[in-house]
Design a protein that fits this description.
Blueprint (H helix, E strand, L loop, with lengths): L1 E6 L3 E7 L5 E8 L51 E4 L10 E9 L18 E9 L4 E10 L4 E10 L5 E13 L4 E9 L2 E9 L3 E7 L11 E6 L9 E7 L4 E7 L5 E7 L6 E3 L4 E3 L2 E7 L2 H16 L13 E3 L1 H4 L5 H13 L4 E4 L21 H4 L3 H10 L3 E6 L3 E2 L4 H5 L19 E2 L5 H17 L4 E4 L21 H19 L4 E4 L9 H4 L4 E3 L6 H11 L8 E6 L12 H8 L3 E5 L7 H23 L1 E6 L7 E7 L5 E8 L10 E2 L9 E4 L5 E3 H6 L2 E2 L9 E8 L1
Parallel strand pairs: 20-21, 20-29, 21-22, 22-25, 25-26, 26-27, 27-28, 28-29
Antiparallel strand pairs: 1-2, 2-3, 4-9, 5-6, 6-7, 7-8, 8-18, 8-19, 9-16, 9-17, 10-11, 10-13, 12-15, 13-14, 14-19, 15-16, 23-24, 30-31, 31-32, 32-37, 33-36, 34-35, 34-37
The structure holds alpha-D-galactopyranose.
Length: 721
C-alpha cells in the first residue's frame, strides 16, 4: 500500500492507497511513525459493495474501510463527501487515486478566505483523484502547519470532459474513525444568545447541523469538536473542525453499522446544484483540522493561535484595538449631529479612543423600514457633513468609525426604486421580508461595484478609521434577475463570494481600516469573516450575565480579541436585568472592549469607575491580544460562578476574572481552580498583596469571596515572583 503521511509537531495524519486506487484514511492522532495500515480490518461483510476490479474477492468494500474522500456510487453507502449529477440526471461517481505531490508553502484559494503562512512555516500536499466516466478531476489539498498542529483541507474540482456536470455535494473535509465512542460538542443558539455549548454522545445514525440562512448563522456555528467521552478541559483526546466560510454549511456526524464514525463538513449540499461546464474549475472553502490529546483548553489554544497568526490580517492583527463608544443602544435611530458629538465628548473625557456612529446616518433612515441601499450622508439629520462629525471627534483626540450594511436594501429607498431587479425576489412569489428589508444580489458584480463605490465615497469624505459591517437578515428568495441566467443552484455560494469580494476591496483600498464584522450581533461569527475582519460584534445580547455564556461558547474556537464586547446600560435593554457597572466591565473586558450607552447619564462616581475600567483594560490588554485564554468555571454548570483567565505565554502573568451567578444564605465556599500557571512558581496577587503557590492555585484553587448580592465580580492579577 502506498502511504501518504503528514506530520505536525504533535500529530500524524496518514492515508493509504490500495492497488485499486482507493484512497483510505488510516490515522489521525498523536504523533507516530510507521505504517498504520494494520488498522484496516478488511474482510467479507454482508451487503457491502465490492469494486468490480476486485474480481470475485469480496474482502474489500468501500462501505467498511475508512475513506479519505468518500463519494456516492462506489459501494460506500454511508453519507458521501462528494456527489455529482451528470447531464442526464445520473448519480454515480467512482473517485480513484491518480497522483500525489508535496510543495513548500501553504496553498491559497481564489476568491475565498484561507489560512496563510510563510513559505517555511507550512507545506502543501496535493492528492489528485479522478472519475473516469465523468472525466472529472478532484484535487484534495492539505495545508500543513507543523508548529501550529493544524492541517487544513480544501478541494478543487475540474471538469475535463465535454459535458456540463452538476456538483451536488463537495465537502471540504471528511474524517473516518475506525470505531470509537465519541462525544460531539457543538454550538447552537439564536439571535442574542449565540454559540451555546451542547455536548452529547454520538449515537447510531446521522446527525446533521448547518445553516440554510445564507450566513453561517446564529443558530449553528461552523465549528465542531469530536472528543473521547472522558475528555475535559485539561485531559483527553479531541478533534476540532472549523469551516472558513460565512454562508450555508453542513456538518455531518455519522456512526455506522460497524460502530465506525465519520465526521465531515463543507458547503451545504441542500439546494446546491453547481453546474461545472467543460474546462471549468470549482474551489471548495477550507476546513481547518486540529487534534490534541491534552483536552479542550489545548484545542482552543491551537485555534486561537491559528486565528491570530494565520487568519486575521492587517494592521490590527496583533495590535491593541481602540476602546470604543458606540451610540446604538444610547440613541438607536434617533439622534442629531450635536447629540452624537455630545456622546463623543463625554467618551473622550473618560479616556475612550474611538466613537462609532451606528445605523441611521444615511438616506432616509429614521425608522428601520427605509433607507438601506442609499449610502449618502443624511446631512440634514447630522446638521452638516460627515466630515464635520469626524473632525469634531478627531478634535477630541478620538478616532471616528461608521456602521454600514452593504448587502441590504429597503423597498423604500432610491436604490430599490431605481434597481428593483438587484434585490433577491422570485418572479411570481411575494418575497419574505425580514426587519422589513430585502437582500441585494451580491452574486452580481455590478451590484457590488455600485455599493462599493457609494460606500467608499462616504469613507473618503471623512476621516473614517473603523467600519462596522452589519448584515441583518437571513436569506431566501434567491434569484438572479439576469436575462437567460439559469444557474440558481450556485447563486447562494456566489453571493458569499461577492461579500468576500466587497471585503477584499475594502482591505485593498483602506489597508489601515479596522473592520468589525456583525450580523445582528454574532450571526456571522466564523473564521471566514475573521480573514477580513479581525473582530466581530459577538452578540446583540449585551446583558453581562447572558454574555458570559455567549462568550464561553465562543471561546472554544475563537480568541477573545476577536470578540467585540461592550458595557451597556441597566436595566439591560434585552433582559431588563440590572448588574453592577463593575461586573459589566469585567465581562466586557473578556473581549475587544467598548461601551454602548449614553455615558452622560452616569453619575460622577460611575464616570470615575469608567475611567478606571479603561485604564485597567489597557493595562492588561496585552494578555488579551497575545496570551492564552482558559475557561475556569463553566457558567451554570460547575458551580454558581463563572470564571476565566488570561495567562501570558511565558506563564509569568495572569488575569483571573470571576463573576458570582447566584447567592445563598450560609453559602458554601467556591474554589476557583486556576489553569495554565507554573506549578513551581510563586505568584503575587496585586489585589490581595499576598503570594501564592502556582501549584496550589491550580490544584485547590482560590476561595471566591462571599459578598452579599448577586452577580458580583472580581479581577485578580497575578505575577510570578
Ligand atoms: C444590528 C447590530 C446592532 C446595531 C443594529 C443597527 O442589530 O447587531 O449592533 O448595529 O443592527 O440597526
Amino acid at each position: 500500500m502506498e502511504l501518504i503521511t503528514l506530520q505536525t509537531k504533535n500529530t500524524t495524519y496518514q492515508m493509504g492507497v490500495n492497488e485499486m486506487g482507493f484512497l483510505m484514511h488510516l490515522y489521525y492522532g498523536p504523533r507516530a511513525e510507521g505504517d498504520m495500515s494494520f488498522l484496516l480490518d478488511v474482510r467479507d461483510r454482508g451487503f457491502a459493495g465490492n469494486p468490480y476490479d476486485a474480481g470475485l474477492d469480496r474482502a474489500f468494500s468501500p462501505d467498511v474501510v475508512p475513506l479519505e474522500y468518500p463519494c456516492y456510487g462506489n459501494g460506500d453507502f454511508r453519507s458521501p463527501a462528494f456527489n455529482i449529477r451528470d447531464s442526464r440526471g445520473v448519480f454515480g461517481t467512482d473517485l480513484r487515486f491518480k497522483s500525489f505531490d508535496m510543495k513548500e508553502g501553504k496553498y491559497s484559494i481564489p476568491g475565498l478566505p484561507a489560512v496563510y503562512a510563510d513559505r517555511k512555516e507550512a507545506y502543501t500536499a496535493e492528492i489528485l483523484l479522478e472519475d473516469e466516466r465523468l472525466c472529472v478531476e478532484v484535487l484534495l489539498r492539505y495545508g500543513v502547519l507543523p508548529a501550529e498542529d493544524v492541517i487544513t483541507r480544501s478541494v478543487a474540482v475540474r471538469n475535463k470532459g465535454r459535458e456540463t456536470v452538476y456538483l451536488n455535494k463537495v465537502f471540504s473535509a471528511c474524517l473516518d474513525f475506525p470505531g470509537g465512542r465519541y462525544d460531539l460538542l457543538h454550538f447552537y443558539g439564536r439571535h442574542m444568545m449565540e454559540r451555546m455549548l451542547e455536548r452529547g454522545p454520538l449515537n447510531h445514525g446521522k446527525q446533521q447541523f448547518g445553516s440554510r440562512r445564507g450566513t453561517s448563522s446564529h443558530q449553528h456555528n461552523p465549528f465542531f469538536i469530536l472528543a473521547d467521552e472522558e475528555t475535559t478541559e485539561d485531559y483527553g483526546a479531541c478533534y476540532g473542525m472549523a469551516f472558513l466560510y460565512s454562508g450555508n454549511f453542513s456538518f455531518e456526524a455519522e456512526k455506522d453499522q460497524h460502530d465506525q464514525t465519520r465526521i465531515q463538513m463543507g458547503l451545504a449540499d441542500e439546494m446546491f446544484d453547481y453546474p461545472l461546464a467543460p474546462g471549468e474549475e470549482f474551489y471548495s472553502p477550507e476546513t481547518a483540522l486540529a487534534y490534541t490529546s491534552d483536552g479542550f483548553a489545548a484545542l482552543s489554544h491551537i485555534y486561537h493561535d491559528l486565528v491570530r497568526e494565520h487568519i486575521c490580517r492587517g494592521k490590527y492583527k496583533n495590535a491593541a484595538r481602540p476602546v470604543l463608544i458606540n451610540n446604538w443602544e444610547a440613541t438607536y435611530l434617533d439622534f442629531t449631529g450635536d447629540k452624537i458629538i455630545g456622546i463623543a465628548r463625554q467618551a473622550a473625557e473618560l479616556g475612550l479612543d474611538m466613537f462609532v456612529l451606528d445605523d441611521g446616518w444615511f438616506g432616509k433612515r429614521d425608522t428601520d423600514n427605509s433607507g438601506l441601499g442609499d449610502w449618502t450622508v443624511n446631512e440634514k439629520k447630522l446638521g452638516g457633513s460627515l466630515k464635520r462629525i469626524s473632525d469634531a471627534v478627531n478634535g477630541l483626540g478620538m478616532k471616528f468609525g461608521l456602521w454600514i450594511e452593504p448587502e441590504m436594501v429597503n423597498e423604500d429607498s432610491e436604490l430599490y426604486r431605481e434597481h428593483p431587479d438587484w434585490a433577491f425576489v422570485i418572479p411570481g412569489k411575494r418575497p419574505v421580508r425580514c426587519r422589513n428589508q430585502l437582500v441585494l444580489d451580491f452574486s452580481r458584480k455590478e451590484v457590488v461595484d455600485h455599493i462599493f463605490s457609494s460606500i467608499s465615497e462616504v469613507i473618503d469624505s471623512a476621516n473614517v478609521e473603523y467600519i462596522k459591517m452589519d448584515m441583518n437578515r437571513s436569506i431566501c428568495d434567491v434569484f438572479t434577475a439576469v436575462e437567460g441566467y439559469q444557474n440558481y443552484g450556485k447563486t447562494m455560494h456566489e453571493y458569499v463570494l461577492g461579500v468576500y469580494d466587497f471585503l477584499e476591496r475594502l482591505h485593498g483600498r483602506y489597508p489601515d481600516l479596522l473592520i468589525e464584522g456583525c450580523s445582528g450581533g454574532g450571526g456571522r461569527f466564523d473564521m471566514g469573516m475573521l480573514y477580513y475582519t479581525p473582530q466581530i460584534w459577538c452578540s446583540d445580547g449585551t446583558d453581562a450575565i447572558d454574555r458570559i455564556r455567549v462568550q464561553h461558547g465562543t471561546s472554544f474556537a475563537y480568541p477573545p480579541c476577536t470578540v467585540g464586547a461592550h458595557v451597556s446600560a441597566v436595566p439591560n435593554h434585552q433582559t431588563g436585568r440590572s448588574v453592577d457597572l463593575k461586573t459589566r466591565g469585567v465581562v466586557a473586558m473578556a473581549g475587544s472592549f467598548g461601551y454602548e450607552l449614553d455615558l452622560s447619564l452616569l453619575s460622577d462616581e460611575e464616570k470615575e469607575e469608567v475611567r478606571e475600567q479603561v485604564r485597567t483594560y489597557k493595562k492588561y490588554e496585552h494578555l488579551l491580544i497575545n496570551g492564552d485564554y482558559y475557561r475556569l468555571h463553566t457558567p451554570g454548570k460547575d458551580t454558581e460562578a463563572a470564571a476565566w483567565a488570561f495567562v501570558s505565554k511565558d506563564k509569568t502573568e495572569a488575569l483571573v476574572s470571576i463573576v458570582s451567578l447566584d447567592s445563598h444564605g450560609n453559602e458554601p465556599t467556591t474554589y476557583i481552580r486556576i489553569r495554565g500557571l507554573r506549578g513551581d512558581g510563586m505568584y503575587r496577587c496585586d489585589e490581595t498583596g499576598e503570594t501564592y503557590s502556582g501549584a496550589v492555585l491550580m490544584h485547590s484553587g482560590y476561595p471566591m469571596p462571599v459578598v452579599p448580592g448577586e452577580y458580583k465580580a472580581w479581577q485578580m492579577h497575578f505575577t510570578i515572583s
